[in-house]
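LysM domain-containing protein structure dump, as promised
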Amino acid sequence: MASPVTFTSAGSPSKAAYSSGAPSNLQRAVLKVHKPPQSGGTGQPPGDWMFDIEFQFNPKELSLSKNAKWGRDAQPNAKKSAPPQFKGSDPAKLALEMFLDATDKMDDAVVKRVEQLFTCCVATEDSRQHKKPSPPWVIFKWGGMTGFPAYVASVTAKYTLFTPSGTPVRAVCTINLEEISGELGGQNPTSGALAARDTHVLVAGDSLPSVAFRAYGDAGRWRAIADANDIDDPMRLRPGTRLLVPALEELDG
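structure tokens r here:
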């Protein structure tokens, strides 16, 4: 089965779960914040988990987009345009809103949560120390639905209610995420350029040997996948992680 283009899903609850109204196990959406890869490159899975930014109220809508790029060569002497040529795919983008409210305690919880979001737009201290500055990577997750590894392209916080002393206690944050694909463009293996790579999103029960068997028909080639993703411990695989799977031409080259 081909890897998902954007989101992965663990499936929907059974109809019985809705027979008496809303499901009892309401799950909050969350932004899972990870360190960037130590190598500093984007063609790797996210680094270690740092913290979660949980949605106080689940978003009422998600705007997901992905564009295909097409181009046409100029034909000055032709009556019609040249046939379109596919130039590649743009990264997926996810736009959503986070509603924050602290009117129950009238404290600075909203300010702190907004500050957490803004930290996702600046380089982490660890990455600066390693001289490979990068903001953290994030993954949007809601119940059984897992998004793509992304960076926070922008955060806009609109404060709408304040205490008498001026502390914001209500805000609406608009968050824009952009996919960190990391896939290498397909090239002709005989040209000496890098071969095309596939990706695989891990699900429960996956192992590197099982991924290698599906990709190459040989479970023993799992080390190539581990090396391509900087995996030191193949026993610690997180479901939802998107792995780069090197092309067979790279292994045999």
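Residues 184-196 have pLDDT under 50 and may be disordered.
lmk if u need the other ones
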